[in-house]
Amino acid sequence: MKILHTSDWHVGKVLKGASRADEHAAVLAELVEITRAEAPDLVIVAGDLFDTAAPTPAATRLVTGALTALRGTGAEVVAIAGNHDNGAALDALRPWADAAGIVLRGTVRRAEDHLITGETSGGERWRLVALPFLSQRYAVRATEMFELSAAEATQTYADHLSRLLAALTAGFASDDHVNLITTHLTVVGATTGGGEREAHTILAYAVPATIFPASAHYVALGHLHRAQTVPGPAPVRYSGSPLAVDFGEGGELSQQLAAGSGGAGEPSSSVTIVEVAADRAARTREVPVTAALPLRTVRGTLAELAELTPGDAWLRVFVREQPRAGLREEVQDLLPRALEVRIDPELLPAGGGGGQVAARAGRSPSELFAEYLNVRGHDDAPVQALFEELYDEVVSG
């Protein structure tokens, strides 16, 4: 059978104040076209359909429209909630999804609710464990569908996930079914993309790949935005996001690059195509998704930045100039798509301007502010004058 694996759409994402609604619409339209061209038997969307737990009506229309269009290609469609999604709200859409022939799972309920079975047009039978994202608190509640001892109830997040998956995959065996798992979590040893929600990525939320059984033919993961395969007892893979979500996922653009060229080390956005059979190991390949604008980081002086031709990319700029009033506006005049402008960290004082703290006694606010600017390497007369003007307004008011 053939599977298209995608995840982490993050529809509704606003990047430094800039809407990406048009990009998301273009990316999902391209995803539908890839599905038509590849003709998979099954499409798996492994979580984070939305960027927020309270999506706008427009974002909801875009996601439900994309899922409907994917189903319209003839593929079976299974989507689960990620940590950015509101699982209960997705479950509220299940009557619509069921009527449309789409499997949608937002929260963990009965064990049998998360084992999906099907058969391809070629007669290949498959079963899929569809497990939405679970927080620490709900991981314990989810395992209450099985009997736990007092000691088991106090074990780690990874222990609970391992027990839950073991119960849900108990029927996996070396028979004539293709055994699949999809879930939304962090596997130890995987590489983050840069835009993930840190609280749900590190520390107690990271689990070993050994929680997945060797009897699984393929494990389709969501949560990490970089496409990658993770070593494990079974084939374990993140599809990555079909568009770069945050600047941490973009590349670096050097002064020599011309418009339309890629940045150094720039990861490509893609979906994963999986071909697998009950008696054959999964083979994967990436299909690039190109509709979204790239995110790139650029560095340089104003003169160097003026020589760049970054095309339509969204930019994060590390400017190699001393801080001064109006510098951001100067950079944005040169690079209108600069959404984030910062002083290059290499130019800032080490340790955030350490040194002896200025004594406050007997000194005016203007003198203290001037000392602060000096310590921060931002000795700029217009900024000092603006502070004094604002201070006078506050005091006189």
UniProtKB/TrEMBL annotation:
Superkingdom of the organism of origin: Bacteria
Keyword Electron transport among UniProt keywords: no
Gene Ontology terms for molecular function: 3'-5' exonuclease activity; endonuclease activity
Domain spans labelled Nuclease SbcCD subunit D C-terminal: 294-373
InterPro entries linked to this entry: Calcineurin-like_PHP, DNA_Repair-Maintenance_Comp, Metallo-depent_PP-like, Mre11_N, SbcD, SbcD_C
Sequence ranges assigned to domain Calcineurin-like phosphoesterase in this UniProt record: 1-89
GO process annotations (BP): DNA recombination; DNA replication
Keywords: DNA recombination, DNA replication, Endonuclease, Exonuclease, Hydrolase, Nuclease
UniProt key word Acetylation: no
Job of this protein: SbcCD cleaves DNA hairpin structures. These structures can inhibit DNA replication and are intermediates in certain DNA recombination reactions. The complex acts as a 3'->5' double strand exonuclease that can open hairpins. It also has a 5' single-strand endonuclease activity.
Subunit architecture: Heterodimer of SbcC and SbcD.
Family, per entry: Belongs to the SbcD family.
Protein name: Nuclease SbcCD subunit D
Species the sequence originates in: Natronosporangium hydrolyticum
Gene name in the database record: sbcD
